[in-house]
Design a protein that fits this description.
The chain is of the alpha/beta class. The protein is built from 11 helices and 10 strands. A 10-stranded mixed β-sheet has the order 1-2-3-4-5-6-7-8-10-9.
Length: about 300
């Protein structure tokens, strides 16, 4: 598994973590183009550390996932120290961006900033809540002045309910409008995955942090059902909703076709219908990422 990931330009850190350059980090360094997280929330793309403390581990085998799933595990076993994981991921990212320094399109100032990330996207692959010391890891990030985004599939509600500290922003992916589609598309490795996701949605309003529901939309699978999604979103009452189109990349190409990747027009139309159901407005969109941001207050977007 480690050899497979390293061929895909991951740096495996310790026994269960990993870091990989985001496409948009390179775009920012060479072309000045930003990812949607910068455009929506003010995160600097070239200073974002995309990592995971559970690179081999997940509770689902989603058909739209870009990662290799042949050796997925549920238990991490002996867990690495949070400080060592963060240090290892920063060092790994520095190695991965070394080559940009010699490119005339990359400014020396921006390259230096990229060597000192100030945002940690705990979202690369796997399910981060399987790492029992996730709260300690987040605390270490915050201690260093770094903001944190956690992306979860919602299968570990007890972890999220008691996570301390909470991340700067918590994403929960809701990629199905009902249990039947959830079972076929998200392929849970646990028997009560849907019930756990529902429990996560129920506790989300009680969590004192910025919350986002992400609807990963796969054409021909889960695109539509706006009323059903709206019912789930009403339970979660998130600050934002991100309808985001599936992208035909990585190992998902063995399970999907390019026709499953919705165009921005379809994502936007879905977003309009969903927004009307839940009473959220379209605050922003980024066609290059096939994503739309729904919310109630544009002033809430940028992280202060």
């Amino acid at each position: 598994m480690k050899r497979i990931l390293e061929k895909q330009h991951y740096v495996v850190v310790g026994s269960h973590s990993g870091v990989k350059l985001c496409h948009w980090l390179g775009q920012k360094l060479l072309k000045g183009r930003s990812c949607y997280k910068e455009n929506f929330y003010g995160i600097q793309s070239h200073r974002c550390l995309q990592m995971t403390p559970a690179v081999f581990h997940c509770t689902q085998m989603c058909l739209f996932c870009w990662r290799f799933q042949g050796l997925s595990e549920l238990a991490l076993g002996d867990e690495d120290d949070p400080v060592e994981i963060l240090d290892g991921c920063i060092e790994g990212q520095r190695k991965l961006i070394t080559g940009y320094k010699g490119d005339d399109r990359c400014s020396a100032e921006m390259w230096d900033e990229a060597n000192h990330p100030n945002q940690v996207a705990i979202s690369l692959s796997g399910e981060p809540t399987l790492y029992s010391r996730l709260g300690e890891f987040i605390a270490e990030c915050h201690k260093r002045g770094m903001t944190t985004f956690v992306v979860s599939n919602g299968s570990q509600p007890d972890v999220l309910e008691h996570l301390d500290p909470l991340p700067t922003q918590l994403y929960v992916t809701v990629a199905a409008p009902n249990p039947e589609i959830y079972g076929r598309l998200c392929v849970p490795l646990i028997p009560d995955g849907w019930e756990r996701l529902m429990r996560t949605l129920e506790i989300l309003p009680s969590l004192d942090t910025r919350t986002v529901i992400r609807h990963t939309l796969v054409d021909g699978w889960n695109l539509g059902w706006e009323k059903e999604y709206a019912g789930l979103d009403a339970i979660a009452s998130p600050m934002f909703i991100e309808p985001k189109g599936y992208v035909f990349v990585g190992y998902s190409r063995e399970r999907m076709t390019i026709d499953n990747m919705p165009k921005q027009e379809k994502v936007l139309e879905f977003s309009k219908r969903l927004g009307a159901e839940v009473g959220y407005d379209i605050l922003a969109q980024q066609p290059e990422s096939r994503v739309v941001l729904l919310g109630k207050n544009k002033s809430d977007m940028e992280i202060k």
